Every structure is written in structure tokens, then in C-alpha cells.
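Hey team,

Filing this mostly as a record. A colleague (T.K.) asked me to run one chain through the structure pipeline before their review meeting, and I want the input and output archived in the tracker in case anyone asks later how it was produced. No errors, nothing strange. Just documentation.

Input sequence:
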Amino acid sequence: MTEIAVLPAVSSQGSTRWVQLGLGLICMMAISSPQYLWTLFTKPLGTSLGVAPAALQVTFSLLIVVQTFFSPFQGWLVDRFGPKLLIGLGGLLSGLSWVLASYASSLTMLYLTYGLIGGLGTGIVYVGVVGQMVGWFPDRRGLAAGVVAAGYGFGAIVTTFPVSNSLAAVGSRMTLLQFGAIFAVVGLLAALGLKRAPTSAVMAADAPDSSTREMLRSPVFWLMFVMMTLMSTTGLMVISQMAAFAGEFGITKAVVWGLAALPLALSIDRFTNGLTRPFFGWVSDRIGRENTMCLAFALEGVAMALWLSARTDPLLFVLLSGVVFFGWGEIFSLFPSTLTDTFGTQHATRNYGCLYMAQGIGAIFGGPMASLLHAATGTWTTVFGVAIAADLLTALLAIAALKPLRARRSAVQTRPFTEPAASA
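Output structure:
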């Protein structure tokens, strides 16, 4: 592994960068519920609006597609106007999307509020915070990206049971209104303390900075894009459809440890989905990005196969769902840190915005396409089989394709310095 040399500017930041990490974590927690708690709203919203599940799931896909497909432009806005203004605006929009969705009387209004406005808000916050943290922590890039990405997974832990209880007590509309207002205030207040990452805090061992246009011409980027698309698809299949297949497996009314099985599984999932991000980010700082990818992606594939085989056991359903998410959530620390290692820090926010679009493509397959596949085959086993195959394929690609490609690129970039031409 290449020895890391850090310029003095990194250590001179003192506690400032850790404060920034904490604020970024809070910002991410404030925007996590629209994605991770969507499954709790599908039944009440579908009943209230009188729409079919596949049509309703377009809301979820729209949220992710807008969140991701606009991220290169949003990354440019954060670089241009600063994290405080743009990430604060994003936090407000994310919370406002729930507030406005509480008044939605048609599927179109739900698309525009929960999907479009929510996607714009969460996208600004997500790509902005991650882009800033890989700049603040060049010496612990995997860990820092993992910590703030963990906020996106951990945030829903705090709200899963309160939202579930609120839905039962006051219904979906009042729940969206109350919690949306809370999310907007928390996200805005945390963003007001954010500062730009110092451009001098760079690693001497970093790759030379590549512009976004140069990155888009690299085979390494497109391989990473395909890999992240595959992994995003498998996770979003589970997130968006968990309540549906839990019902088919007979888990919805089950009780585990005195708690309803589905909300308990969702809470455990949020915990493991958050924990895996800093954990595997930290691991990748030590054993390498591709080695860690292979380990984590294979873990998800194996766990999902075991989950399917034990689908009628409520306790195993709950526990194995947590293992599945432990093998999935790390994509949000491994891919941004690998991308910045490869293409440098100067354009990190915009560059990650381009890669993050893979999450949007994954949402197209993970949401309505999963519903259509289930409708065509009459079973969730087919959907699980596709997800397991994608996990194992991506684990193989990390070692067999991405690792040699990145090594070859690094060798080409360093050759002029390590092998100077002989003088005439």
C-alpha cells in the first residue's frame, strides 16, 4: 500500500475539521427519513390516494433519481456558493417536501412534493456534505466519508418508531407535516455552521487532480459507475419493497422480543446500514479499497441468500436483514473515497456528483422494476435471485477489474517521476 504523506495543513486544522464532521453528520441524519422510511408510508398513502403499488413506487424512484441525477450540477453549486448556503437550502427543501406532501390530494402532487422537491433537497445535502468531508480529511478519507454517510443510515433509527407510532395515532398526513417541519429546522441549523474544506489540506500521495471532463473519459470511472449501479439496485430493491415482501413471507404481524417484527427489522437495518459505512471506510484505509469492496459486497450476497432461505422465521428475518444492510451501506463510503483517491480532491464534489447518479439508476431498477418483476413471476424469490447475482458479480469486479485498472492508471501517472527519461 502506498505510504500516505500529509501536508502540515491537515494537522493545523485542529479540532475544526472534527466539528465540521459532526455538523455534516447531523445534516445527513436530517435528510435520511424520506428514503429509509418510505416503506412505512406506502400502504397508508396508497389507500388514501387509491393508487396501485407500482404507480405509488414511482414516488420513491423519483426521489432517488432527482437526488442523484442533479448531483453534478448541485456539486458545482456547492463549490461555487459554499456549503453553508447550499446545504442549508437543501435541508429546508428536504423537510419542506414532507410538509407539502401532507397536503397532496393526487399522485401527481405526491410526485412533485415528496419526489421532486425531496430529491432536490436531499441531493444538495448529500453530495455537498460528502464532497466537503473528503477534503477536510485527506488522511482518513474512507473513515470521514463513512461517518457522514452513516448519518444518512443512522438518522432513520431515531425516527423509525416515532414515525411508525405517529402513523398509527394520527395518520400519514399529520405525521408528514410534523416530522417534515422538525427535519427542516434541524438541517438548517446544522448547515449554518459548515465551512469550506481548505484546499491546502491535500495528501502528497494523492492522484493528480482530474477535471470532471477528464474523469468522464476514464474507463476506471465507468467501471465504478457500473459497480455502484449494481450495488445500489440490490439495496434499493430491499429498502423500497421490504414491507411488501415481509407481508408475503408472513412477517408483518409477527412479534420479536415483544416488538412488531417489521419496525424492529427496519430499526436494526438503519443501525447496521449506518455502522457499516465508517467501519468499512476505516477498513479500506488500511487494507485497500478494492479488497474491502470484494469482502463487503460478497457479504451482502451471502447474507441475502441466507435471508431468503429463512424468510418464514421472524427472528431470523429480523437479524439477517441487519446483516444484509451491513453488507450494502458501505458503498457510500467506499465509492467516494476510491473516486477521490483516483481523480484527486480539487473537483471532488462535482466528480462524486457524477458517480452518485448511479444511485438514481439503481432506484429505477430497485423500485418499480422490482414490483414489475414480482408481478410477472408471482414471487419475491426471483427478485432476490437477481439481487444476489448482482452482489457477487460486483464483488468479483472489484478484484478482477477495478484493482488492476486503478493500478495501471497509477503507474502511468507516476512513471514520469519514477522513470525519468535519460538525457541525450
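Quick notes for T.K.: Residues 33 and 237 are 17 Å apart (CA to CA). Confidence is low (pLDDT under 50) at residues 1-9, 201-205, 416-424.
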